[in-house]
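Task: fold both queries, return C-alpha cells.
Query 1:
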Amino acid sequence: MSKIKIILVLSLFVSGGAAADIWRWVGADGVTHLVDTNTTIYTWVDESGEVFYSDTPDHEDAIAIQLIWHSKGDLAGMNTTAREDTQEYYCKRATEIYDSYIHAPRLYRTNEAGEREFLSEEEAQTTIDETKIKKDDLCS
C-alpha cells in the first residue's frame, strides 16, 4: 500500500467516529469505495501508471473525486445486505454498459467540441475488453 493510501486511510479514521452518512466514490481503476466522511479526496496517476489518492491535492495532475451520497449510517454498521445490494447494483449497471458496447454498431467518444469521434476497430475492441474486465470484477 502506498504512503498516500495509508495516509488517506488513517485520515478517515481520525476524521471522526460515528458519521451520519456513507459516501461512495469510484477510483481511477474503476473500483467503488465507501467512506464515512465527505472530505474531498484527490486522485492522480503518476508517470508509471500507479494511481494515488490523498485528502490534499499533492500533485499537479490531482483532481477531486466526486463523492456521491450512498446511505445513512456508518461503515461499521453497514450490514451485509446493504453491501450485497450495492454490489448487485454496480454489477447490473456494468453489465448494461458492456452489453450496450457489444450491440452498438460503432463505438465513439465525444470530443471537447461535442462532436463524435468514432473509434477504430482496435480501439473499440480494447474498450470492450476493458469494460468486460471491469464488469467481471464487479460481478464476482
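Query 1 returned. Query 2:
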Amino acid sequence: MAYIATHQGRTTRVKVSEPRPGIFTVTLGDKDYEVDFLEPQPNILSLLIGGRSFEVDVDAAPTSDVFEVYIKGDHYEVEMIEEKKKKLAMKMSKGVTGRQDVKSPMAGNVRSVLVQPGDRVAAGQVLLILEAMKMQNEIKSAIEGIVASVTAREGVAVAAGDPLCVVEPWEPQFPVG
C-alpha cells in the first residue's frame, strides 16, 4: 500500500508491504527499510529497524489521517493519507461538476452509510465510511447535490471501482412569476 506522509510541511511517498508476517518492507522515497513490527499494547509499537530498537506511541482519532507520534519523548505530528485517497482529493479540489457516480477508491468493507436517497449533501460532506487495512476512510461528496441512489450496504465488502452511490447536482428552485 502506498501513502503520502506529511510532517512539518515536507511530503514523502511511503510504500509498505508485508513479505512475511510481522516483517514489513517500508520504502521512504527511494530507500527501503526492513521493519520488524510488534504491537504489544494498543497504540504502542515495538519496531526493530536496521538492528536498532524503537518504542513508538501512536495516537489518532478513529477517522483522522493525522497521527500523534512519540519516540523517546520527542513528539511528531504526521499526516498519512493513502496515495489513492490523496489523488482523489486533489482531483476533487479542481472543481468537479455534474452527476457524480461515487465509486470505491479501494477494496474494503463498508463500515457505515451516512446518507440515503433524497438527502441533500454539501460538497465535502461524508457519505460513508469505508474500512480498509484497519483504517477508516471517509468517502465524501465532490459536489453539493441530492443523493440519487445508494448501492453500498453496511458490513458488505467492496472492490476498488465498485459503485457506492450517485449524487446529482443540486439546482436551486426559484419561484416563477
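Both queries returned. Flag for query 2: The two ends are 57 Å apart (CA to CA).
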